[in-house]
Amino acid sequence: MSAHLSYGRVNLNILREAARKELREFLDKCAGSKAIVWDEYLTGPFGLIAQYSLLKEHEVEKMFTLKGGRLPAADVKNIIFFVRPRLELMDIIAENVISEDKMHSPRDFHILFVPRRSMLCEQRLKEQGVLGSFINIDEYILDLIPYDGDLLSMESEGAFRECYLESDQTSLYHTAKGLMTLQALYGTIPQIFGKGECARHVANMMLRMKREFAGSQTQILPVFDSLLLLDRNIDLLTPLATQLTYEDILRGLCSFVYGILDLCYVKLPPEKFAAQKKQGEVGKDLPTEPKKMQLNSAEELYAEIRDKNFNAIGAALSKKAKIISAAFEERHNAKTVGEIKQFVSQLPHMQAARSSLANHTSIAELIKDITTSEAFFDNLTVEQEFMTGVDTDKVNTYIEDCIAQKDPLIKILRLVCMQSVCNNGLKQKILDYYKREILQTYGYEHMLTLNNLEKTGLLKPQTGTRNIYPTIRKTLKLWMEDANEQNPNDISYVYSGYAPLSIRLTQVLARPGWRSIEEVLKMLPGPHFEERQQLPAGLHKKRQQGESRTTLVFFLGGVTYAEIAALRFLSQMEDGGTEYIIATTKLINGTSWIKSLMDRPEAP
């Protein structure tokens, strides 16, 4: 299950095992049979740390989702609540416990806060009269969760909102703690680079924590050569744009049709995955259950195609089909017993590959239905016009039409914010017009959302300063005409022409260095800096000739799958010289990101 976490230069299984060890220790504190009551948001992240088999080994017999009212029947000694420190969840837990007490249930109650224990939550339980019912109240510090062999996430859903809207630095503290845990397992990171106010805060907290624990430094040869901390608000454009890699569109499709099951699995329309009937076969009923699919590099074909531009998927699947077909044809060449035996041993893998190909071909057809639609093309055209500076300083007729047709509000907000970002703000007259149209069409309750977008800099009035975006675009080559989507030679393939600003900064840092773009860095919000951390004596890394560097890139406020794809592309470049591991406070897309800033979220 976890082999995909150890395929790269950094074995992320070490982090997973450390998290599993802590979980086992907590479960063993609660002697006897157990039922776990889950905060539903945590089931996805925990599924990556421990499968049911591990929980079963530690006497977990039942699992329920946290809901109001009475708990489902379970003949167990211990009830353990796994929850985030949220006041509204404490009210539900109190309801559960009071219901059990009324039934004179002889059970022991325990609560595990993830990722931190909360005095406010304990106070709420006390007010509800149930705090004394808990035998164990503990915390499970799940800061960085390994999602793939090169990807870590804290899955802190409110991180961007907290940092940039509410000036709450709690998630930054958790980030610093998570990075300290990482250094305890993988060695001190010698160089820290950063851009942005939040990046500066995290670096300062890390350095302070290192001084406080100076005597307990780990004697581990550093795995990472450098850490790059990037604020999300230095690049507000990238998450707003329609993402065009296979993984992006697939996840977007699933969240629209069903909602994402969790970050490693998706549900897909069942009718598209019905087994094809043979000629003359009487009709079978179509499947009614959604198709569940794994979304990480443990699935071989998915790992191959997930980062490709959607326009390159057809050719990639066709090529794979020929390879699989040729492999099956080999059976005709197997003459000796040894050759037949070898073919038979490869058969399960070949059949799994053929099944996977059929699934991804069905998905590609679903995606094609979306990407060949007029609505998709029109939306993409307007986005690319904004990115290239076309008519960003006037009211956009496409946005007007979308509002008139009452298209989803999130789509409207993304487009208006994109126009604002690409124009370094909108003229007051234009901004007021858009606001008026949105409020009159979608309701005045969205006034708070518009204010939130202004506070975070996504939507803002143009001040007297000149538009700096064209300078940034030209200097960093953020727009590449004729981007090669089939055989890419630049990161701009992920958006069919637009190179994510955040990734261009990462690329320039590796070669030739940020000094070459000092003026552009000053135009972007927040300070840029470099810190060096002293390594324990005798632990200096000697790099072999031709050996690439390993850089951890940490996105504060969220990262998109397009940015992840672009970093993977840079890691694979032969002359790149750097392998990237990606970490973030949250995996996001444009819809989830805008939703996090809405005070009354709407369906996408």
From TrEMBL:
Q: Which SUPFAM superfamilies match?
A: Sec1/munc18-like (SM) proteins (SSF56815)
GO BP terms, alphabetized: protein transport; vesicle-mediated transport
Task: Please give the Pfam families that the UniProt record associates with this protein.
Answer: Sec1
Identify the Gene3D superfamilies for this entry.
1.25.40.850, 3.40.50.1910, 3.40.50.2060, Syntaxin Binding Protein 1, Chain A, domain 2
Q: Where is the signal peptide?
A: none
Annotated Gene Ontology cellular components are: late endosome membrane; lysosomal membrane
Q: Which UniProt keywords apply?
A: Membrane, Protein transport, Transport
Cellular location(s): Late endosome membrane; Lysosome membrane
Coiled-coil blocks: none
Identify the InterPro entries for this entry: Sec-1-like_dom1, Sec-1-like_dom3a, Sec1-like, Sec1-like_dom2, Sec1-like_sf, VPS33_dom3b
Instruction: Give yes or no: UniProt keyword Transport.
Output: yes
On whether Protein transport is a keyword of this UniProt record, the answer is yes
Membrane topology per the entry is: Peripheral membrane protein
Family to which this protein belongs: Belongs to the STXBP/unc-18/SEC1 family.
Q: What is this protein called?
A: VPS33A core subunit of CORVET and HOPS complexes
Q: Which organism is it from?
A: Salmo trutta
